[in-house]
Design goal:
By secondary structure, the protein is mainly beta. Helices cover about 5% and strands about 65% of the residues. The chain has one helix and four strands; from the N terminus they run αββββ. A four-stranded antiparallel beta sheet has the order 1-2-3-4. The chain starts with a helix and ends with a strand. This is Methionyl-tRNA synthetase.
Length: about 70
């Protein structure tokens, strides 16, 4: 229970790019958003993680890619 209050993670948007394809819901353009996540424990940085999310620019739905 105490680890919840001690550990914290902050996410910061690094950049946006136009991705290929169209949204299956509304047909809008798709953007690739790069996100940087920093994990801390007792104010000490533990990990640095980068993620990429795909979001429709018109309806703001998060799109999931399948292999």
């Amino acid at each position: 229970m105490r680890m919840i209050y001690v550990c914290e993670e902050k996410e910061n948007e690094v950049g946006r790019k136009k991705a290929s394809g169209a949204c299956p819901y509304c047909g809008g353009t798709v953007e690739a958003v790069d996100i940087e996540g920093k994990g801390k424990l007792f104010c000490l940085p533990i990990c640095l993680r980068f993620k990429r999310k795909y979001i429709c620019s018109f309806c703001s739905k998060r799109l999931v890619l399948y292999p």
